[in-house]
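Extended Data, panel c. Modelled sequence:
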Amino acid sequence: MRILLDEQLPRQLARHLPGHFVRTVQQEAWAGLKNGVLLSKAEAADFDVLLTGDQSIEYQQNMSKRRIGIVVLVAPSNALEDLLPLVPNALIALTGAQPGKIVRVTAK
């Protein structure tokens, strides 16, 4: 699976997602893009999923015609130590991610 790691998440998170091709927004030179433009660029680059910590994205984006899925990590902060407990559930969510769908991942 091709995963785009949103810019507010630490890039070190990528090494905790084995078996996936992970690129960061910064690596793609897309830092600072608004979510709609970012999703369009990610789709054009054949990413399957945007992995983000932006908990408001589901209220900002109409996903009905999107070819990319979104997985939202719900943690106390975007610090790596707060995100790592979510990784097992995130890996499950990534496996089942579908275009046009948003999945929220928590530690429970």
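The two ends are 24 Å apart (CA to CA). This feature is highlighted in the accompanying rendering.
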